[in-house]
Amino acid sequence: MPHRPYVIDQMISAKAISARVEALSHEITAHFKGTNKLIVVGLLRGSFVFIADLVRELDLPVEVDFLEASSYGDAMSSSREVRILKDLRGEIAGRDVLVVEDIVDTGFTLSHVVRLLKSREPKRLEVCVLLDKPSRREVDIKATWTGFQIPDEFVVGYGIDFAQRNRNLPYIGKVRFTD
Ligand code: IMP
Ligand code: MG
Questions:
Q1: What PANTHER family does the annotation carry (predicted)?
Q2: In a domain, 118, yes or no
Q3: pLDDT over 70 at 71, yes or no
Q4: Ligand 1 atom 19, closest CA
């Protein structure tokens, strides 16, 4: 649906996001305290803003790596097929891993990625997601840390896109079609 007109209604302000990111980072820092082996793995592209803010609040030595997974299908719904488009640059065997994702929706993407990374035998693997739409879940997967639970709305901003647009909004808003 390339050109349907829409507006964006703010759902979570930049201030609320920043307060939540700070709280999450304290919990994550406490959880991994003492590690010198933490790799923060961002799932491209939607997590790039979240991961940038999160790692700057972590009081831990961290490395950052990225993985790109893609599901087929139209722009507003996930398909069940997940492909790895770009793999990690580094090894994670024996390391502490924090997977950072923008949204968990049906759960197919995250469960695929977690299964793949666990097969590489990290020492510990935890997951931090910014947004969770629990009403849409089809695969039983739960993040260790969740920023916000949201209703079944299509959202954009703070790294999250609609057909590659609106990633640069500082807040999270829901897409409302006006036609
Ligand atoms: P899942 O495999 O259905 O859990 O899909 C998760 C992925 O779908 C996320 O990483 C997002 O890229 C995308 N996604 C899910 N909901 C939204 C949304 O409301 N806006 C933009 N992308 C979304
Ligand atoms: Mg994504």
A1: HYPOXANTHINE PHOSPHORIBOSYLTRANSFERASE, HYPOXANTHINE-GUANINE PHOSPHORIBOSYLTRANSFERASE
A2: yes
A3: no
A4: 154
Residue 91 lies in a domain: yes
The answer to the question of residue 177 being in a domain is: no
Any idea what the CATH number is for the domain that residue 97 is in?
3.40.50.2020
Among 157, 153, 136, CA closest to 14: 157
> Exposed (0-12), middle (13-18) or buried (19+): which is 33, by Cβ within 10 Å?
exposed
Q: Which domain holds residue 57?
A: 17-71+82-149
The single-letter code of the amino acid at 84 is I
How many domains, in total, are found in the chain? 1
What pLDDT does 3 receive? 75
Q: Which tokens sit at 61?
A: 């030595």
Buried residues in 37-47 as b, exposed as e (16+ CB within 10 A): bbbbbbbbbbb
Q: What is the band of 80 on the pLDDT scale with cuts at 50, 70, 90?
A: confident
Ligand 1 atom closest to the Cα of residue 155 is 19
Question: Which ligand places an atom closest to the C-alpha of 129?
Answer: 1
- pTM strictly above 0.90: yes
CA distances from 93 to 11, 110, 117, 122 (A): 39, 19, 9, 4
Ligand 1 site, residue 173, Cβ cutoff 6 A: no
